[in-house]
Amino acid sequence: MAEGSVFKHCSCKSADGRRLGSRCPKLRRPSGAWHPTHGRWAYQLELPTTTDGRRRTLRRYTFDTRDIAAKERDDALNLLGLAAGNKDLAIEIGDLLHQLKPTEPLPDRNMIARRVKAGIPATTAVLLGDYLTEWLTGRSIEASTKRSYDGHIRNHLEPHLGHIPIEKLRVGHIKAMFNAIADRNIAIEAARGSDDPDIRASVRRQRTTGAATMHRIRGTLRKALNDAIRTHRLIEFNPAAHVELPSGKRPKARVWTTAAVKYWQATGKRPSPVMVWTPQQAGQFLDYAEDHDIVLYPLYALMLYRGLRRGEAIGLRDLDLDLDVGAAVISQQITTVGYRPVTKKVKTDAGDRTITLDQVTVAITRSHLARRATWQLVSGPAWPRTGLIFVQPDGTAWHPDTVTKRFDDLIEKAGLPPIRLHDLRHCAATFLKASGADLQDIKEMLGHSTITITSDTYTSVIQELETERAKAEASAALVPRTQRRAG
User: Fold this and answer.
1) For the chain, N or C: smaller number of CB within 10 Å?
2) What percent of the chain has pLDDT over 70?
3) 448 C-beta neighbours (distance < 10 Å), count
4) Is 296 strand, coil or helix?
5) Helical (H) or strand (E) element with 355
6) Taking the mean position of all CA atoms in its chain, how far away is CA 102?
């Protein structure tokens, strides 16, 4: 490979108006040495010939010193050296250099080297959107996790960042995406509160993106970029790891107190995304469910009394239950991917647990099993052998979305303040704490991976219950007051 040359160049013109360039006589002294102040330094080197054999040259001008010009020439030669005898790759790198604009810096050698190692064309920018799509396609992960990643990529990362070459992605780009998401949240909330029905209708079924979801979006991008560093060697820096977001802490559970119920009745709004019933409200629900949906009543009771997740209750098997001992093993769940039910193991070691059943739950479950035996007797040999505790009267498994829909319908018809089906779990934890259990007991019942999750979610709601009232009264009583007439 030719080493190229370093020389001086100027913008002087001849008498007929033509630029002299490197032919200007003022560039050299009479001795032949370069003039120290006239002109600027430049370099030139031969690039690999094109596929059809045409010669081409790389010329770069306007360097302040010879050393700077020589260094860039050497950098260009080092880039060409990455071809290591591969003629096609040499032509490709030559194309990349030949297409540079006069003021455009040379491509980063390490970046080109990473592309060469990854088998990616040196002349093609790897756009983040293309990389994320390829990255997700090649991952062997749970269907639900893949669906979550896909949603983050399709709804947020691709629209905001997909057009940016992966090696040019910076922290500022990612911050701008989250700022845009926050602005969209504000616009949706403003439209929802508008007096104009057309404006309200324009955001119907549009959802805001909460702080926790933003953290998960960043987590997806951070994981993908970490793989771009470790596995694909496309980049050396992960900008997603250096983006700060507002706290995505779980919302505190709040009790449907009398004041909270009045606020909801007046505004239609819940004081918190996570609401729990008082014991009296929970009892009203169970009474109503027993009278109006006896088929699902035992499942809801189990969730309310012992804090099971929806998928854990639906997936509970005959072999997991021992009513004589009063215990149930929680080891599998039935969840959904899209709308399709999927049976799988519980997600964590902490979730794989044995829970103790109280006498009320045991009695309700025994009655359910007796009722189920009647359904089976009526169906005869056609009865499906699912092995599940909670099934429909025809023996088939419950679809998780159906269980949720019927729960919501019962609440509305019973006239109770609304909670989510998952909030039955929060009710169970709240009532257990009010009865004297500590956070470790609640953690084990719920199958939380750390006690931090338990504490973050339930600290405030615990303080709203009667167990804290006596402490508050005792504290206030210590403050001496003179007798004053009311009013």
Assistant:
1) C
2) 87
3) 20
4) coil
5) strand 353-356
6) 42
Residue 428: is it exposed, middle or buried by C-beta count within 10 angstroms (0-12/13-18/19+)?
buried
Are the C-beta atoms of 344 and 142 separated by less than 8 Å?
A: yes
* DSSP 8-state assignment for residue 251: P
Q: Side-chain half-sphere of 408: how many Cα atoms within 13 Å?
A: 8
Find out whether 277 and 416 touch, Cβ atoms under 8 Å: yes
CATH superfamily membership of 254-472:
Intergrase catalytic core (1.10.443.10)
Residues with Cβ within 8 Å of residue 470, at least 6 apart in sequence = none
| Pair of tokens at residue 155 | 């709804």
Domain spans of the chain, in order of start: 5-118, 128-242, 254-472
| Distance from C-alpha of 119 to C-alpha of 194, rounded to nearest angstrom | 54
Integer CA distances (angstroms), 12 to 22, 39, 41, 75, 392, in order: 9, 9, 14, 29, 92
- Rounded CA-CA distance 84/87 in Å is 8
CA dist 418 → 47, 255, 362, 404 (Å)? 72, 11, 27, 13
* pLDDT, tens digit (0-9, with 9 covering 90-100), for 101-149: 887 888 877 777 777 776 766 666 688 998 898 899 888 888 888 999 9
Per CATH, the number for 128-242 is 1.10.150.130
Task: Give the C-alpha separation, 151 to 159, whole Å.
Answer: 12
Q: Is 217 exposed, middle or buried (0-12, 13-18, 19+ CB in 10 A)?
A: buried
Q: Tell me how crowded residue 199 is: count the other CB atoms within 10 A of its CB.
A: 13
Q: What is the pLDDT of residues 197-213, one digit of tens each?
A: 888 889 888 888 988 89
Give the integer Cα–Cα distance in Å for 330 and 328.
Answer: 6
Of 160, 158, 170, 168, the C-alpha closest to 134 is 158
Question: What H or E segment, with its residue span, contains residue 57?
Answer: strand 56-63
